[in-house]
Model the fold of this input.
Amino acid sequence: MKAKILALLALAALPAAASSQPVKSLTASQAHEAELAADPATLAARAAVAHRFTPVVGADAVARVGALADGIILTQGLPPPPGGDQGGSLPPPPGQERRGGSLPPPPGGGRLPPPPGGGSLPPPPGFDPLPRPIFPGGPLPRGDRRLEDAERTYDQDGEYLGYWDGARGFDEARGEVVTRPGEGDSYSMVLRSEETQRQTVFVRKQDGLVYWYPRSRHIDTETRRVVMRFVNRSAKPLLPWERERFTVTFKGDRSRNGGVELETASGSYRYTYAVRFDPMDRDTVILEMTAQEKLLTSADENGVTVTLAADGRGGLKLVVTDRWGSYYAGETLLLAVRVKKDSGSMWRRDAVVFETTGRSPHTQPIPAGAADGVQFELPVTTTGAGEYYLDAWSFQRSGSRLSRADWMNRGRGNRIRL
Done:
């Protein structure tokens, strides 16, 4: 009986796929297992364990319990891998037999390679590794690292001082030349450009807090004498009412033109200029200005006057005087005028008795050969006795060869009583 059971156990341990292969002999451990299986007490104990822990249901469970009752254990597991009947472990991957089947480590020993450029990521745009203070000063937090980054530190009267050197450079000096008729052809000015060092200063006060404030330290001063010379002023003079303005700048750290630049020119002519240096004094810069074609400029706002006057016949008239009639001879003067009569009461509006507007102005030709101060008269409609006044008036030099066609607003005029 014992030999029969051992033979059945050996057949049951073989996989189904192995039926075509020769039967192997039992090892010592397998033989010992077969002897234990033949013991009725061992079969009963194993049946109890299988019934408690094996989640097998249905007909298969009934067959297994029946087999246990007959003293035979049937195994329905998967066949062992090839060559693995002595342990059942999976074969190692190809080329890794000596490592027991473990995956190879990633390149670099398991760490990601450093980014290009030495292993540090580039800082984001606008990043400042030293967060320097911004204006306008105040106490710093205790232990602020900016104090450690100060460029110099020292003690003065028992107080801790430190500072950062900021931007260093020259400021821009500016000068203006205003030219008028009859003042000659040469103007001069002195410009000074200061070199300064901007700093951020730290001071530890008696309260233990560190305060900071901005300051500028003077380093040097550069000086230039600028001479503006108009080389053809006699051939192209200014008109009596004209003014010219020129802005000149000087910065000590500029090498071009000795640091002197002509920034703006608001003149009666288009100018070209050349830069010269005084051979006896290199700190003197000469700007030689040459006038080209004439430019239209603003008319003289005081060149025309309008006055409300009696006409000698019980009525009113407007007297127009052109101060520069000889310069504008043959041209046209436009007038916009409004005359009102005072109602005598703050509750009633003043009536308009005479008006010309910018859209329908009074056109006054200036005759050829007119002299300066030429006058013109305009009749004014009246509505009887009372007080009349010039409420507003303006004029324009229309189509002029000398002045721009801008309306010159002159505001209110005089009063007169009839």
